[in-house]
Write a structure and sequence with these properties.
Oligomer: single chain
Shape: globular
Structural class: alpha/beta
CATH class: Alpha Beta
CATH superfamily: SPOUT methyltransferase, trefoil knot domain
Number of strands: 5
CATH architecture: 3-Layer(aba) Sandwich
Strand order of the largest sheet: 2-1-4-3-5
Length: 152
C-alpha cells in the first residue's frame, strides 16, 4: 500500500526539514511512501486561505484513495490501535492511504468530509511540528506492525 502525507506548504525550518527527511527515508524501507506538498495560500483572510488550500488538497487526492484527515475535531487513538488499522487496510488490499495535514489555519469542511478524522492530541501544535509528529507516528505504526523494538 502506498502512503502519502499530503501537506499544505513547504517547511521553513531547516531542523524540521531534516527530521522529516529522516522519517521519510525510514518509512520508505517499509513500502511506497511520499510527501506531497500543495502550495499554501496567500489569501488576505484565513477563511479564504483555508478555502483555497482545501481546493488544492482535494484535487491532489486520488478518487479511490483511503483518507485520514488530521484535525483537532477527530478522536485520538493509541499508536498500537492505528498500527492495527493500517494492517487492516493492507489486508483489504487498499492501494493508497493519504494522510492530510492542513496549513496554519486548518482545514475546511469539504476536506474534513473527504476522509476519516483523526487528532494527534488535544493540544495545539504548529503545522510544521505536526508534520514531524505525523511522520514519527507513521514510522512507529510500521515498526509496531513488524514487531520491531522501536516502539518499546
Amino acid at each position: 500500500m502506498k502512503i502519502t502525507l499530503l501537506c499544505v506548504g513547504k517547511l521553513r525550518d531547516a531542523s524540521v526539514r531534516t527530521l522529516c527527511a529522516d522519517y521519510a527515508v525510514r518509512l520508505k524501507r517499509y513500502g511506497t511512501f511520499e510527501i506531497e506538498e500543495v502550495k499554501a495560500s496567500s489569501a488576505p483572510t484565513p477563511p479564504r486561505a483555508v478555502a483555497e488550500e482545501g481546493t488544492r488538497l482535494l484535487h491532489s487526492i486520488a478518487p479511490g484513495a483511503r483518507v485520514w484527515v488530521l484535525d483537532e475535531r477527530g478522536p485520538t487513538y493509541p499508536s498500537v490501535h492505528l498500527a492495527r488499522r493500517l494492517s487492516e487496510l493492507e489486508l483489504r488490499a487498499t492501494k493508497c492511504l493519504v494522510v492530510v495535514l492542513g496549513g496554519a489555519y486548518g482545514l475546511n469542511d469539504e476536506v474534513r468530509k473527504r476522509g476519516e478524522l483523526l487528532a494527534l492530541s488535544p493540544m495545539t501544535f504548529n503545522h510544521e511540528l505536526c508534520r514531524v509528529l505525523v511522520l514519527e507516528q507513521l514510522y512507529r505504526m510500521r515498526t509496531i506492525q513488524r514487531g520491531e523494538p522501536y516502539h518499546h
